[in-house]
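Page 42, continued from yesterday. The earlier attempt failed because a stray header line got pasted into the input along with the sequence. Redoing it now with the clean sequence only.
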Amino acid sequence: MAADAIPYTLDLTTCATPVDWCSLFGNDHPVELEVGSGKGLFLANAAARDPNCNFLGIEVARKYAAQAAERVAKQHLTNVKVLPGDALLFLARYVPPQSLRVVHVYFPDPWWKKRHRKRRVFNEGLVVSIERGLVPNGELSVVTDVEEYFGVICELMASHSLFEDIPIQEPKTPEHDLDYLTNFERKYRIEGRPIYRKLYRLR
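This time it went through. C-alpha coordinates are written below.
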Protein backbone atom coordinates (compact mmCIF):
# COMPACT_ATOMS: atom_id res chain seq x y z
CA MET A 1 0.00 0.00 0.00
CA ALA A 2 1.42 3.37 -1.04
CA ALA A 3 2.06 5.95 1.66
CA ASP A 4 -0.07 9.09 1.66
CA ALA A 5 2.27 11.70 0.17
CA ILE A 6 -0.26 14.56 0.17
CA PRO A 7 0.75 15.99 3.59
CA TYR A 8 4.35 16.06 2.37
CA THR A 9 3.64 17.76 -0.96
CA LEU A 10 3.60 21.54 -1.18
CA ASP A 11 1.14 23.20 -3.56
CA LEU A 12 2.59 26.48 -4.79
CA THR A 13 -0.87 27.89 -5.52
CA THR A 14 -1.69 27.82 -1.80
CA CYS A 15 1.58 29.38 -0.61
CA ALA A 16 1.79 32.86 0.81
CA THR A 17 4.25 35.27 -0.79
CA PRO A 18 6.67 35.15 0.90
CA VAL A 19 6.16 31.74 2.44
CA ASP A 20 5.80 31.49 6.23
CA TRP A 21 8.14 28.70 7.30
CA CYS A 22 6.64 28.45 10.78
CA SER A 23 3.16 27.95 9.37
CA LEU A 24 4.40 25.51 6.75
CA PHE A 25 6.29 23.23 9.14
CA GLY A 26 4.51 24.01 12.39
CA ASN A 27 7.69 25.08 14.21
CA ASP A 28 10.49 27.63 14.09
CA HIS A 29 13.35 25.23 13.36
CA PRO A 30 16.03 26.17 10.78
CA VAL A 31 15.18 25.52 7.14
CA GLU A 32 17.36 23.93 4.45
CA LEU A 33 16.35 23.86 0.80
CA GLU A 34 17.40 21.43 -1.91
CA VAL A 35 17.27 22.54 -5.53
CA GLY A 36 16.48 19.51 -7.71
CA SER A 37 15.63 16.88 -5.10
CA GLY A 38 15.11 14.04 -7.58
CA LYS A 39 13.73 10.94 -5.88
CA GLY A 40 14.39 12.34 -2.42
CA LEU A 41 17.32 10.29 -1.12
CA PHE A 42 19.14 13.33 0.27
CA LEU A 43 15.95 14.74 1.80
CA ALA A 44 15.09 11.49 3.55
CA ASN A 45 18.57 10.89 4.91
CA ALA A 46 19.17 14.48 6.00
CA ALA A 47 15.76 14.82 7.66
CA ALA A 48 16.20 11.56 9.54
CA ARG A 49 19.64 12.64 10.79
CA ASP A 50 18.49 16.10 11.88
CA PRO A 51 14.87 16.11 13.16
CA ASN A 52 15.36 19.64 14.53
CA CYS A 53 15.80 21.07 11.06
CA ASN A 54 13.16 21.46 8.34
CA PHE A 55 13.87 20.47 4.75
CA LEU A 56 12.19 21.58 1.53
CA GLY A 57 13.00 19.81 -1.71
CA ILE A 58 12.07 21.36 -5.05
CA GLU A 59 11.90 19.13 -8.13
CA VAL A 60 10.73 20.28 -11.55
CA ALA A 61 9.93 16.73 -12.73
CA ARG A 62 6.58 15.91 -11.15
CA LYS A 63 7.15 12.16 -11.39
CA TYR A 64 10.31 12.40 -9.29
CA ALA A 65 8.76 14.91 -6.90
CA ALA A 66 5.96 12.41 -6.27
CA GLN A 67 8.51 9.65 -5.61
CA ALA A 68 10.41 11.90 -3.21
CA ALA A 69 7.23 12.77 -1.30
CA GLU A 70 6.28 9.09 -1.09
CA ARG A 71 9.78 8.21 0.16
CA VAL A 72 9.60 10.65 3.09
CA ALA A 73 5.98 9.70 3.76
CA LYS A 74 6.96 6.05 4.18
CA GLN A 75 9.49 7.12 6.79
CA HIS A 76 6.99 9.44 8.53
CA LEU A 77 9.45 12.33 8.36
CA THR A 78 7.40 15.29 9.52
CA ASN A 79 10.21 17.80 8.90
CA VAL A 80 10.15 17.48 5.10
CA LYS A 81 8.08 19.03 2.33
CA VAL A 82 8.44 18.46 -1.41
CA LEU A 83 7.51 21.07 -3.99
CA PRO A 84 6.90 20.01 -7.60
CA GLY A 85 7.92 23.10 -9.51
CA ASP A 86 10.50 25.68 -10.50
CA ALA A 87 13.22 26.27 -7.91
CA LEU A 88 14.31 29.53 -9.55
CA LEU A 89 10.80 30.93 -9.27
CA PHE A 90 10.37 29.78 -5.68
CA LEU A 91 13.69 31.19 -4.50
CA ALA A 92 13.11 34.51 -6.25
CA ARG A 93 9.49 35.10 -5.19
CA TYR A 94 8.60 32.96 -2.20
CA VAL A 95 11.65 32.57 0.04
CA PRO A 96 11.85 35.28 2.73
CA PRO A 97 15.18 37.13 2.96
CA GLN A 98 17.72 35.64 5.35
CA SER A 99 15.59 32.60 6.18
CA LEU A 100 17.56 29.56 4.91
CA ARG A 101 20.37 27.87 6.79
CA VAL A 102 21.68 25.89 3.82
CA VAL A 103 20.90 25.55 0.12
CA HIS A 104 21.85 22.24 -1.52
CA VAL A 105 22.36 21.86 -5.29
CA TYR A 106 23.34 18.30 -6.17
CA PHE A 107 23.99 17.00 -9.67
CA PRO A 108 22.04 19.68 -11.57
CA ASP A 109 21.09 18.75 -15.13
CA PRO A 110 24.08 19.78 -17.30
CA TRP A 111 22.02 20.30 -20.47
CA TRP A 112 24.84 18.98 -22.61
CA LYS A 113 23.95 20.64 -25.91
CA LYS A 114 25.36 24.15 -26.19
CA ARG A 115 22.07 25.61 -27.39
CA HIS A 116 20.32 24.23 -24.30
CA ARG A 117 22.76 25.51 -21.67
CA LYS A 118 20.60 28.55 -20.99
CA ARG A 119 18.26 26.07 -19.26
CA ARG A 120 20.82 25.24 -16.60
CA VAL A 121 19.48 25.92 -13.13
CA PHE A 122 22.78 27.19 -11.77
CA ASN A 123 22.92 30.70 -13.18
CA GLU A 124 23.29 34.29 -12.04
CA GLY A 125 19.65 34.55 -11.01
CA LEU A 126 19.93 31.48 -8.79
CA VAL A 127 23.03 32.79 -7.02
CA VAL A 128 21.42 36.19 -6.42
CA SER A 129 18.34 34.53 -4.93
CA ILE A 130 20.43 32.21 -2.75
CA GLU A 131 22.49 35.16 -1.53
CA ARG A 132 19.30 36.96 -0.56
CA GLY A 133 17.68 33.90 1.03
CA LEU A 134 20.53 32.65 3.22
CA VAL A 135 20.95 33.70 6.82
CA PRO A 136 24.31 35.29 7.72
CA ASN A 137 26.93 32.52 7.69
CA GLY A 138 24.47 30.34 5.78
CA GLU A 139 25.93 27.84 3.35
CA LEU A 140 25.60 26.71 -0.25
CA SER A 141 26.64 23.14 -0.99
CA VAL A 142 27.19 22.15 -4.63
CA VAL A 143 28.06 18.77 -6.16
CA THR A 144 28.32 17.78 -9.83
CA ASP A 145 29.96 15.10 -11.95
CA VAL A 146 30.45 17.44 -14.92
CA GLU A 147 33.85 19.14 -14.88
CA GLU A 148 32.88 21.85 -17.38
CA TYR A 149 29.74 22.75 -15.43
CA PHE A 150 31.76 22.76 -12.21
CA GLY A 151 34.11 25.29 -13.76
CA VAL A 152 31.17 27.49 -14.74
CA ILE A 153 29.78 27.28 -11.20
CA CYS A 154 33.14 28.14 -9.61
CA GLU A 155 33.61 31.11 -11.93
CA LEU A 156 30.12 32.37 -11.21
CA MET A 157 30.54 32.03 -7.45
CA ALA A 158 33.92 33.81 -7.59
CA SER A 159 32.12 36.88 -8.94
CA HIS A 160 29.99 37.08 -5.77
CA SER A 161 32.29 38.46 -3.10
CA LEU A 162 29.84 37.83 -0.26
CA PHE A 163 30.47 34.09 -0.61
CA GLU A 164 33.67 32.53 0.69
CA ASP A 165 34.94 29.15 -0.44
CA ILE A 166 35.37 26.95 2.63
CA PRO A 167 37.07 23.54 3.03
CA ILE A 168 34.91 20.51 2.43
CA GLN A 169 35.31 17.07 3.95
CA GLU A 170 35.78 14.07 1.74
CA PRO A 171 32.66 11.88 1.66
CA LYS A 172 32.65 8.96 4.05
CA THR A 173 32.58 5.36 2.94
CA PRO A 174 28.91 4.31 2.56
CA GLU A 175 27.70 1.79 5.09
CA HIS A 176 24.80 0.52 2.97
CA ASP A 177 23.13 1.02 -0.41
CA LEU A 178 21.17 4.10 0.65
CA ASP A 179 24.06 5.75 2.49
CA TYR A 180 24.89 8.17 -0.31
CA LEU A 181 24.27 11.85 -0.90
CA THR A 182 21.91 11.17 -3.83
CA ASN A 183 21.05 8.39 -6.27
CA PHE A 184 23.39 10.02 -8.81
CA GLU A 185 26.26 10.02 -6.33
CA ARG A 186 25.72 6.33 -5.64
CA LYS A 187 25.80 5.52 -9.35
CA TYR A 188 28.86 7.62 -10.12
CA ARG A 189 30.89 6.53 -7.10
CA ILE A 190 30.23 2.86 -7.90
CA GLU A 191 31.34 3.56 -11.48
CA GLY A 192 34.46 5.34 -10.22
CA ARG A 193 33.65 8.60 -11.98
CA PRO A 194 35.11 11.87 -10.63
CA ILE A 195 32.75 14.02 -8.57
CA TYR A 196 33.34 17.73 -7.94
CA ARG A 197 32.26 19.39 -4.70
CA LYS A 198 32.20 22.93 -3.34
CA LEU A 199 30.97 24.50 -0.12
CA TYR A 200 30.42 28.24 0.20
CA ARG A 201 29.57 30.36 3.20
CA LEU A 202 27.80 33.70 3.08
CA ARG A 203 29.96 36.30 4.84
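Notes: Strands lie at 31-35, 54-59, 80-84, 100-106, 134-144, 163-166, 196-202.
Reminder to self: strip header lines before submitting.
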